[in-house]
């Protein structure tokens, strides 16, 4: 399905912008990313954009993971079915979240103490939490192929931005966190302190303080880019690029 057609059908449903939806769609087509892991799906709008790209390719599967106890209307399942894209997506609903799904996936893909790398793209868009998503990065890394991509949404989001006294956001109690934890963009910390420093990731991008992207190049050379979006066709309106080399020990 062409992007303009799927956008006309679901573009009004949150939580992904048209530009980001188009970016994912084009990325999948151009790089032929046919094995996709999506951790956190909400309404499944991003899922539909990616499934539409796989339909255009004529192959591929999205493994999508979210909680059982969520109430998003429309549901991801209903959006996929209404748009004839359900054949490209396997949805897994978990009681405790996607870190245990990753445990099970590592078990399924492990033979003789080696975990097979099975995914071309992994998108992390869940609770935006240092503990959960930091662990998810290391777990998902074991399943990501060489030259595959890791994308983190909500790069600059904070719990303080939706402070709810005594409340819960995506299963995380605000009362359980210090003021510093609530005010710190935790996905930014995951990206800067874990992903950026990881020896396997060589191409790193922060897009409009919204996405953190990293490619598993398995190279000692690193390229770090901060990009400010304007439109899909003119993605890099401002670019600050730093290239640094790290010699592996």
How many helices? The count is: 8
Q: Calculate the mean pLDDT score and round it.
A: 90
CATH fold-type name: Rossmann fold
In the CATH hierarchy, what is the architecture at level 2? Answer: 3-Layer(aba) Sandwich
Strand content: 25-35%
Give the helix level as a range of percent: 25-40%
The number of domains is 1
H/E element string? Answer: HHEHEHEHEEEHEEEHHEEEE
- Which ranges are low-confidence, i.e. pLDDT below 50, for 5 or more consecutive residues? 230-249
Shape: globular
Written description of the protein model:
The protein is built from 8 helices and 13 strands. It is of the alpha/beta class and 249 residues long. The strands form 3 sheets. It has a 9-stranded mixed sheet with strand order 3-2-1-6-7-11-10-12-13, with helices on both faces.
Key features of this structure:
about 250 residues; alpha/beta; Rossmann fold; nine-stranded mixed beta sheet; two-stranded antiparallel ribbon; 8 helices; 13 strands; about 25% strand; disordered C terminus
How would you summarize this macromolecular structure in one to three sentences?
The chain has 249 residues and is an alpha/beta fold. 32% of the residues lie in helices and 27% in strands. The chain contains eight helices and 13 strands.
């Amino acid at each position: 399905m062409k992007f303009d057609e799927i956008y006309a059908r679901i573009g009004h449903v949150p939580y992904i912008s048209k530009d980001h939806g188009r970016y994912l769609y084009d990325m999948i087509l151009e790089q032929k990313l046919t094995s996709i892991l999506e951790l956190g799906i909400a309404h499944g709008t991003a899922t539909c954009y990616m499934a539409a790209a796989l339909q255009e390719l004529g192959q591929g599967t999205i493994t999508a993971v979210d909680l059982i106890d969520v109430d998003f209307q429309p549901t991801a399942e209903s959006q996929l079915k209404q748009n004839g894209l359900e054949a490209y997506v396997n949805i897994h609903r978990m009681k405790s979240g996607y870190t245990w799904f990753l445990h099970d996936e590592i078990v399924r893909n492990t033979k003789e103490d080696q975990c097979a790398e099975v995914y071309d793209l992994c998108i992390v868009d869940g609770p935006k939490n240092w503990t959960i998503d930091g662990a998810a990065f290391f777990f998902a890394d074991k399943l990501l192929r060489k030259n595959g991509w890791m994308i983190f949404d909500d790069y600059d989001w904070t719990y303080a931005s939706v402070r709810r006294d005594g409340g819960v956001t995506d299963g995380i109690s605000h009362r359980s966190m210090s003021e510093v934890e609530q005010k710190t963009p935790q996905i930014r910390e995951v990206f800067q302190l874990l992903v950026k420093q990881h020896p396997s990731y060589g191409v790193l991008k922060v897009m409009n303080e919204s996405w953190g992207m990293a490619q598993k190049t398995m190279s000692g050379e690193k390229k770090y880019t901060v990009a400010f979006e304007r439109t899909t066709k003119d993605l890099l309106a401002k670019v600050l690029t730093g290239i640094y080399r790290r010699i592996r020990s």
